Automatic annotation (TrEMBL), chains A, B:
<feature type="domain" description="CYTH">
    <location>
        <begin position="2"/>
        <end position="147"/>
    </location>
</feature>
<dbReference type="InterPro" id="IPR023577">
    <property type="entry name" value="CYTH_domain"/>
</dbReference>
<protein>
    <submittedName>
        <fullName>CYTH domain-containing protein</fullName>
    </submittedName>
</protein>
<dbReference type="InterPro" id="IPR012042">
    <property type="entry name" value="NeuTTM/CthTTM-like"/>
</dbReference>
<dbReference type="InterPro" id="IPR033469">
    <property type="entry name" value="CYTH-like_dom_sf"/>
</dbReference>
<dbReference type="Pfam" id="PF01928">
    <property type="entry name" value="CYTH"/>
</dbReference>
């Protein structure tokens, strides 16, 4: 078990695009309850089952297990209400790793940037392309987006 | 992924007790939705994460992964609303394996017998101690019992 501390932001322009290669992610949820989210994720030939249990708005216990990719595909088909599709770009900036997620399908149009921290109080430099922080807005979790995709949000 | 076909019965007397040794099971649920139940189980030094996705009242897709016992204990503590405790007795009868579960704690007083079949139409001989079939009664699933324990059922 690991502790995951994460902050999440909107992305305000496209200037980050030249900084990294993207990897395609597909993920579905067996539970979207913040006290016990259960995620199935496929990246390339690899797949994982991940359980997160919320400790605070930005901290979660995380348990992750590699599973056969064929199992993950079957789980997404048979047991997940919707699959979230995105390309994840990993960008190093001022000593921290940022992950920018570009969503597709029903979540198309959404860009989110996440930073993982070792402590809730850790300071970091905000890159120019970083927009408003949405860590405390539960709508921007992938679990929520799997049930209420971005394109269906009231404008 | 395997297909699990299971029928479930009440137990009407104690005559099965001399037929088998019991093993203690502890299990909690990260999702109790029949379309995607996620179970954490500890038996002795072993632990598993199991996902079942309902196909029909008696059939489910099943995906099971061994996980470290310490993870399972932490998951039950941190992320499962309640832990179901039981002793499971495995009893061979007329060519089939029966599992009799004797529940404890908030589910104390409940005895259930399960048989796993290779096909929904498979015939089997009912042992004398077998009571009413409850396969179609969702209250007798362990997932339901983890949220609505037997001792709190209206009498």
């Amino acid at each position: 078990m690991a502790m995951e501390i994460e902050r999440r932001f909107l992305v305000k322009d496209e200037s980050w695009r030249d900084l990294a290669e993207g990897l395609r992610y597909r993920q579905g949820y067996l539970s979207v309850d913040p006290a016990r989210t259960v995620r199935v994720r496929v990246v390339g030939d690899d797949a994982w089952l991940t359980i997160k249990s919320q400790v605070s708005a930005m901290s979660r216990h995380e348990f992750e297990y590699a599973i056969p990719r064929a199992d993950a595909e079957q789980l997404m088909d048979a047991a997940c209400p919707m699959v979230v599709e995105k390309i994840r770009y990993r960008i190093k900036y001022a000593g921290h790793l940022w992950e920018v997620d570009e969503f597709f399908g029903e979540n198309g149009g959404l860009l989110l940037a996440e930073i993982e921290l070792s402590d809730e109080a850790t300071e970091f430099v905000r890159p120019d392309w970083l927009g408003e922080e949405v860590t405390l807005d539960g709508r921007y979790t992938n679990a929520y987006l799997s049930q209420n995709p971005y394109r269906r949000w009231p404008k």
